């Protein structure tokens, strides 16, 4: 029963990230970073404008970081809730979960499942 609850936790993690829309946030922050990098490399813009753009981008990226952090924290909490619920129901011990989770086949399955959960559109 340990492996199904582990995979359920991974699925919950990925689905919470998807539900909270972390993908568009990461894409937007990457675009913003590329645009500011291009601006900073431009020879046509004076140093004061570059500094203002860099400060603005730093503030925006800090906000993006906090947004990603709270979404990721909720996703981790969902995964832990799934795993701990199995232990709470008496289906396994948490020490057993730790040992099983580190098995190479379980790790490979976790990677495949998380990629599928994040990429496949429902």
What radius of gyration results from the CA coordinates? 20 Å
Helix and strand succession?
A: HHHHH
Main sheet properties: none
Class by helix and strand content? mainly alpha
Rounded mean pLDDT score: 87
Assembly classification? single chain
Low confidence ranges: none
Name the overall outline.
elongated
> Strand-residue fraction?
under 5%
Terminal residue distance: 26 Å
Count of runs of 4 or more consecutive helical residues: 5
Report the strand count. 0
The proportion of residues forming helix, as a percent range, comes to: over 70%
Characterization of this structure:
The structure is a single chain. This protein has 122 residues and is mainly α. It has 5 helices and no strands. It is elongated and about 65 Å long. The model has no long low-confidence stretch (mean pLDDT 87).
Give a short overview.
This protein has 122 residues and is mainly alpha-helical. The protein is 85% helix and 0% strand.
List key phrases describing it.
single chain; elongated; 122 residues; mainly alpha
Architecture blueprint of SSEs:
Elements: H1 2-19, H2 22-41, H3 47-88, H4 94-101, H5 104-119
């Amino acid at each position: 029963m340990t492996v199904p609850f582990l995979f359920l936790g991974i699925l919950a993690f990925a689905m919470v990230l998807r539900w909270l829309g972390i993908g568009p946030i990461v894409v937007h922050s990457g675009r913003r970073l590329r645009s500011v990098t291009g601006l900073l490399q431009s020879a046509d813009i004076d140093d004061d404008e570059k500094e203002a753009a860099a400060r603005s981008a730093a503030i925006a990226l800090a906000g993006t970081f906090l947004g990603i952090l709270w979404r990721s924290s909720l996703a981790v909490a969902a995964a832990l809730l799934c795993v701990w619920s199995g232990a709470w129901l008496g289906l396994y011990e948490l020490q057993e979960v730790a040992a099983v989770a580190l098995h190479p086949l379980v790790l490979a399955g976790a990677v495949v499942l998380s990629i599928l959960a994040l990429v496949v559109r429902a």
